[in-house]
Amino acid sequence: MVKAIQIGLGHWGFSWTKDVIPNVPTVEMVGYVDSNPDATKRVQDELGIDAKSCFLSLDDAVAAVDADLAICTLRTEAHYPVVKQALELGLNVLVEKPFASTIAQAKELVALAKAKGRVLMVSQNYRFQSAPIAVAELIGAQKFGPVNLVSIDFRRHAPSQGYRYWDMPDPLLADMSIHHFDLMRMVLGDEPKRVSCRTWNPPASPFGHHPIGVATLEFEKGTIVSYRGSWMSSGPVTPWSGEWTMDCSDGEIIWSSRDHFMGKAGPDRLALRERDGDAVPVALADVALADRMGTLGAIAKTIETGAAPARFSSGEDNLHSLALVQATIQSAARGGEWIEIADVMASA
């Protein structure tokens, strides 16, 4: 059993406290931390958390309880200082994405985790779904041969779906597309080489920054990915992971994942189409711990066994997803100029 302290009990952190952590049986909560006393009072009043387990600082929590893991569920700008503090205090860390604001900060945290002999994991929860797991295995087994072209569409209309972060910088690329970029790396089993991206903000949009974007990504093995994402789409709503068509030498792999809309959850979907044939649906195996529960269960297993499971999103691995986000942002700022991922990784 892994003993954990949660840091950050705001809107998203409270969701972790209520909906995620209680459903992972290998984690025992020993502390909850938030600098805002109203946040700690809320988990006490609404979730029945013992006041003796609530603290206003991580230092106080570590001094009072014995813990193995810090679950960092704070706003992005707080990730770097809090993760650094947790690692320095000897804790393993699970942190929400993006795990740092810059590549330099991310590299520092990865190096610190190695120096301390601790596990640093980024909660890339979209990896823990049945469709992308199955697709990664199909691609790895060369079901239809090499992947030539991948087409991905993400469509949501944020104003009518309860979106609230209108002033967030790069609301598409940094907050949403990072999930899709990370899934590209996972299912292809490959790393991005360079990217070209354009973003824009349509008339009458409530966003302060660009909610729509189009990107072309080239991967090391030669696969080209065509990506289109919009928070202001009037078209059919896609699942959160988007709609994917993967064109291979001998057929297509068509899939979607995290089909949640207006509070209703639908199944992941996967179909295979041999060249000149019809698409045939494929039954998918259930995932024991899905989504955020999957990330928490994965780091708990890694801490207990010393061996990371397949497709584990360590801080070191996630550097490449973070670099891809930063490259697309740079490209968009330069009018779609091609940006080399290696240059972004080396710039820190």
TL;DR of this structure?
The protein has 348 residues and is of the alpha/beta class. The chain is 35% helix and 26% strand.
Textual characterization of the structure:
- The protein is α/β, with parallel strands linked by helices and 348 residues long.
- The protein is built from 10 helices and 17 strands.
- The strands form 3 sheets. Strands 16-15-12-11-7-10-9-8-17 form a 9-stranded mixed beta sheet. The protein has a 6-stranded parallel beta sheet with strand order 3-2-1-4-5-6. The protein has a two-stranded antiparallel ribbon with strand order 13-14.
- α5 links the parallel β5 and β6.
- The longest helix has 19 residues.
- The protein is globular.
- Belongs to the Gfo/Idh/MocA family.
Annotate the secondary structure layout.
Elements: E1 2-7, H1 11-20, E2 27-33, H2 37-47, E3 54-55, H3 58-64, E4 69-72, H4 76-88, E5 92-96, H5 103-116, E6 120-123, H6 130-140, E7 147-155, H7 173-188, E8 192-200, E9 212-219, E10 224-230, E11 243-248, E12 251-256, E13 259-261, E14 264-266, E15 269-274, E16 279-281, H8 291-305, H9 315-333, E17 339-340, H10 341-346
Parallel strand pairs: 1-2, 1-4, 2-3, 4-5, 5-6, 7-10
Antiparallel strand pairs: 7-11, 8-9, 8-17, 9-10, 11-12, 12-15, 13-14, 15-16
Helix pairs in contact: 4-5, 5-9, 6-7, 7-9
Domain GFO/IDH/MocA-like oxidoreductase: 134-249
Keywords: Oxidoreductase
Pfam families: GFO_IDH_MocA (PF01408), GFO_IDH_MocA_C3 (PF22725)
